[in-house]
Amino acid sequence: MPTMGVLESRFADIIWNHEPLASRDLIKMAEEELNWKSTTSYTVLKRLCERGIFKLQDKMVSSLISREEFYGMKSEQFVEDTFDGSLPAFIAAFGTRKKLSDEEVEELKRLIDKMRR
Question: Is 2's pLDDT higher than 80?
Fold first, then answer.
């Protein structure tokens, strides 16, 4: 599964929020938002492309994996590694520290019902 560090995630968010975009525009945005030099941006972009998250083709940057897919895979991997793949065990552990509101419980019920179909 592809991974990203905190700074890479901020850079990825720029791409996901504006894709497809010209690489020169991405470099300019990273300079403004992250205070990065162009060499840093190109290095990080190359790394993220090598990991199969983004692609650079004809000077245009776009994603190969959506933000939702990426964080979905990351969440699945966390549950797998930490709770032996048991979503109920994860939710039980989560619930010991944070109580869910009635609205959150209802939303979870809707999600579970949707997954059953």
Answer: no
